[in-house]
Known about the structure:
Layout: E1 6-10, E2 15-17, H1 30-40, E3 48-53, H2 64-71, E4 78-82, E5 88-92, H3 93-96, H4 108-125
Parallel strand pairs: 3-4
Antiparallel strand pairs: 1-2, 1-3, 4-5
Amino acid sequence: LSMLKTGVLLLERMESCNVENACYSAGLCAERTAISKAVSEGHKSFKAIAIASDLEDRFISPCGACRQFMREFGSQWDVYMSKSDGSYKLMTVEELLPSSFGPDDLRVSNNTFIITVINNKQQTNG
């Protein structure tokens, strides 16, 4: 559908490809496919991911949804983005998604504080 051929290899040797769908939002990028496959096989910690495509003029970069999905498993792992000639650009998940929201942001104490602030605001405005 998109005609963009994309493949991914996790350091854990999980290979994948993009899974497209006529309803674009129902498709699944190669990065999320590889990570989901790895998680389903018991892997939850990653060191690196390599993304390849048939792009010639620029490095393939993960979409926003993939960046957030990768962030779920840490911000300091390496992302190798390549061109079809074999050259690559190396960045971390943190560099691709700075100031990101991750699992640590879901701690109960943080949510309790937010609810308290909202409740206090409602009481003072009420």
